[in-house]
Amino acid sequence: MTATAPELPEVTLGDEFGKELDRIRAEIIAARGADDARYIRTVIAVHRGLEAGGRVALAVSLFPPAWVAGTTLLSLAKILENMELGHNILHGQWDWMGDPAIHSTTWEWDFLTPAEAWKHTHNHLHHTWTNVVDRDRDLGYVAFRMSADQAWHPRHLAQPFYNFLLAPLFEWGIALYDLEPDVVAAGRKPWRSFLNDVRGFLAKATRQIAKDYMVFPLLAGPSALPCLLGNLTANTVRNLWTHTIIFCGHFPGDVQTFTEEHIENETRGEWYLRQVQGSANIEGGRLFHILSGNLGHQIEHHAFPDLPSNRYAEIAPRVRALCEKHNIPYITGPLWRQYGSTWGRILRFAVPVG
């Protein structure tokens, strides 16, 4: 009697794709070294120089040229700190250096939401459950309907207005969102935890408001009012830029969303597929990518959130080639196109159609 050969497990697209991305990840981890450390320390030094120059110029900002120069420098400093430093350091991208000054457990960024609260909602919830309806709260930030699988409510008719309002106040919106009031209302978060988070937010907000709208304006003496207005402008510019990059990396029209059925028994390879299909890249030059925290490479960031951000440009052509090889959509385009597509999505799902 001839023995029957055991049936081999089916090799899926996700398995193949995942193994190839794992190889890229392993190569980058093995190659991290002095050049990467030099990059992040240079960015920190540039940020400190921009902030110092901006603060000094705003201290004498009764003179209009000083106000323009100071506000510009401070705006660039806040963008750089928020995007390329804060966001990426808090992802643990530089923990491998063992430097306590550039570590995800010690860095507190120049942003209203406390680092620990943001790491919970962003690093854990969003990056684990990317674009899964009812699991990823970043899918519309609770306020927006961004998928046909989300229930429509009359309030969604106003979501274009919400978006206009959110953009200049983005850090306030994110800070309040990270408190998870909707999770508390649903009974999935204890009131005690919520109140602890509120105390943390109030403490952080008090420090931020005091720094930008009291301490530095008072130090400016006769230039107190223009200094305060310069700080307000710099924070608003940072908020507008951050909102634009984040929304254009997550919500263009071709970005896919998923239901919980899609992720049942999800393998690592299928997780990679979801990250790639649930993100969009933004094309631009080197300076654009640095000021966007290299989140113009949003697809690569979602596939490898803890790899050094300066490596995404190196990885991107390889990831794109793999997507083409496996016939997987790789969504990319210039900022203006992704911005228009994002607004198209916001408008489309504001009305009760699927």
Automatic annotation (TrEMBL):
Family matches, as PANTHER family: DELTA(5) FATTY ACID DESATURASE C-RELATED, FATTY ACID DESATURASE 2
Pfam family, one: FA_desaturase
Species per Swiss-Prot/TrEMBL record: Streptomyces aquilus
Alphabetical GO biological process terms: lipid biosynthetic process
One cellular-component annotation, GO: membrane
Name of the protein: Acyl-CoA desaturase
Recorded superkingdom: Bacteria
Ranges where the Fatty acid desaturase domain occurs: 66-332
Coiled-coil segments: none
A single MF term (Gene Ontology): oxidoreductase activity, acting on paired donors, with oxidation of a pair of donors resulting in the reduction of molecular oxygen to two molecules of water
